[in-house]
């Protein structure tokens, strides 16, 4: 699991606009083309209703087998994600269940303020924003728990594993890696380009799960910023070690280019089959490794991926250059996510294997 590092301090005023919770989304159909994307105009804007399931902590315990370690999927910056089975039968005799994922915030009983409560409420608002809900690369809420000091959310999700765990695995092939990178780039571009833009601020592979088809899904929103959200949460957090924009680490100044930096490191992870090791953080930080190894025009793609039948050797240097530009120490030299998407779409693997309509 990754290591978290906090530094920097700033705060913003609170904007009180709220989005009621709901769960009346139509199913989102993803086309067979692995490089298809759902754009803003494809997301249906429906009237928001307050019909998320209000669940007890005991129910969450039942769904997860008493929070069995075997069902633990991820430890994120602010919580733990478990696999679960939720009964959906019409009566007690009907044992039909559906796969869900359940996130519990880290032991709220130890908190000395309401930061986790604000994060919890902001996540509900964000995922029910009419502009956001239905995006295939964000979790879909179906319920929540707010019992005493226990805070939990329930997602309609069957995770294969975290991106962090899969990056080093041979089963995660080149085509799926490029597909995941492009999907995440499109997601960030979508969030950054909203009229009231959102910043994720703690992008890293431990906060992303892949489903059975290797589709990436973001599930951690503990440092999310957006105009519709409560901005009074302490800003003394700076994201995840190894993915933090150095500018943020120095002065706490967050912009969309901070997310771009983190995406650049994530892109290097996917290409090089490297992730940071908690037991040896400085020696295994992928951004520091890349700065030492990079030369203009080189490829940092792992040898085993270069041997993949879908790999085109012209793409290696292009992806490497893109990742390094995303991590440029001068913020103004980093591309916006719109440019990142365009450059990923121009890769030969995408052009050759995307069936354009």
From TrEMBL:
Its main location: membrane. It comes from the Eukaryota. GO terms for molecular function: ATP binding; protein kinase activity. GO terms for cellular component: plasma membrane. It is found in: Cell membrane. Pfam families: PK_Tyr_Ser-Thr. Keywords: Cell membrane, Kinase, Membrane, Transferase. PANTHER family: OS01G0588500 PROTEIN-RELATED (PTHR45621). This is Serine/threonine-protein kinase PBL21. It comes from Nicotiana tabacum.
